[in-house]
Specification:
Helix content is 52%, strand content 11%. It has twelve helices and five strands. The structure holds adenosine-5'-diphosphate and magnesium ion.
């Protein structure tokens, strides 16, 4: 079975439930829209915010959309995809993203990062957003260094907006006594929840429509099952819906019924 077979069986003009969608093509669930709005607010306030959610809940996508809405002549975005670079790596990435050549010595590197961050707004009139994705993986020392960087400005305000994206454990970690100072600085806390049943229904229909099918392909039983198993988390919905399309196709069916969705769920369970 190839993607081409699947496409022609269902009459899709493009493969549905794929990962990369242009911001304008995303589904506007409540959680998604709220997260995007709040992240945009964070940039304008130069505040520290934390957005949490389970794996595949749409955190990175929401940040990408919020960033894509920024005027590029007036904003600089530093996106750190992976915290597993140590504290030195963290500063080096910030410096490189802002066009500097990271200094070797750590104290010099820290000063360099702080000054480049301040310079963006003071001299270039550009607002900065630093995004730490997978922030639940940040080490305690990294969290402390982020706090110091935020406090580096003489101004009571930070020189930049800072967004921590992570799994729900991040919230608990930051609430621990050791991070009290960082915790107090947090101006935005938002948790992206799974979509509700109605949204999952709309989400599936949305993806199918983008693929050229606006009629009903999934039975309502199948949609309910996908919702239940995925708990409304977009990535899990994508995977289940795709496997359900495959299962129905291999049985020669022209709709995805409950038994196809059940086969998909069982397969994914076994992974
Ligand atoms: N609003 C949305 N509309 C369409 N697809 C979405 C939306 N939000 C998330 N997705 C899908 O779910 C996947 C997981 O989202 P992602 O932001 O990577 O999750 P997280 O960062 O929380 O682990 C994305 O690759 C995308 O395919
Ligand atoms: Mg992510």
């Amino acid at each position: 079975m190839s993607i081409d077979h699947l496409r022609s069986h269902w009459g899709f003009t493009r493969t549905p439930f794929t990962r990369e969608l242009a911001p304008s093509m995303l589904f506007q669930s409540k959680g998604h829209a709220e997260a995007v709005a709040r992240i945009s607010w964070l940039v304008s306030e130069r505040a520290l915010g934390i957005v949490t959610g389970e794996v595949g809940s749409g955190k990175s996508v929401a940040a990408r959309v919020a960033v894509s809405g920024l005027d590029t002549s007036r904003h600089s975005v530093v996106y750190l995809a992976n915290p597993a670079v140590g504290t030195r790596g963290m500063y080096a990435e910030i410096v490189s993203a802002l066009g500097g050549v990271p200094r070797y010595q750590k104290a010099a590197l820290i000063a360099q990062a702080a000054s480049l961050l301040a310079q963006q707004e003071d001299e270039l009139g550009r607002r900065v957003l630093v995004v730490f994705d997978e922030a639940h993986l940040l080490e305690a020392t990294q969290l402390e260094e982020i706090r110091l960087l935020l406090a580096a400005d003489m101004d009571s305000r930070a020189a930049f907006g800072c967004l921590l994206l992570g799994q729900p454990t991040l919230r608990r970690r930051i609430r621990l006594g050791t991070h009290a100072a960082l915790n107090q600085r947090i101006a935005l806390r938002y948790s992206i929840e799974g979509m509700d049943a109605e949204e999952t229904t709309g989400y599936i229909a949305h993806h199918l429509k983008l693929a050229g099918r606006s009629d009903t392909i999934f039975s309502s039983d199948a949609v309910s099952l996908v919702h239940q198993v995925s708990r409304g988390l977009p990535r899990a919905v994508n995977n289940l819906a795709t496997q359900a399309l495959v299962a129905a196709y291999t049985k020669g069916k022209s709709t995805v019924d409950e038994s196809s969705a059940r086969m998909a769920a069982a397969e994914m369970d076994g992974e």
